[in-house]
């Protein structure tokens, strides 16, 4: 387990910091449909964003599919989609 110290005190897992950086730098828009969170990214960055999501153990997420500028994030049940959407929005700063 690789931890990083935060400037505002405390520690966080390195993969969580990596995900937050990827989302905040590359995500342009987020929406949802049923049990899918649709993440629009800058051109050619979706595979890297999907990989960062896959590396982190997000609750209720079962996997991603990435195109060039869009990631589909599958959620285990439609009732959990809004929870996952909120987490992704918070990490990306698109709230």
UniProtKB/TrEMBL annotation:
It holds the Pfam family Arg_repressor_C. This is Arginine repressor. The gene is argR. Belongs to the ArgR family. The keyword DNA-binding applies. It comes from Lancefieldella rimae. The lineage of its organism: Bacteria, Bacillati, Actinomycetota, Coriobacteriia, Coriobacteriales. Keywords: Amino-acid biosynthesis, Arginine biosynthesis, Cytoplasm, DNA-binding, Repressor, Transcription, Transcription regulation. It comes from the Bacteria. Pathway: Amino-acid biosynthesis; L-arginine biosynthesis [regulation]. Its main location: cytoplasm. Regulates arginine biosynthesis genes. Residues 23-89 form the Arginine repressor C-terminal domain. It is found in: Cytoplasm. InterPro entries: Arg_repress, Arg_repress_C, Arg_repress_C_sf.
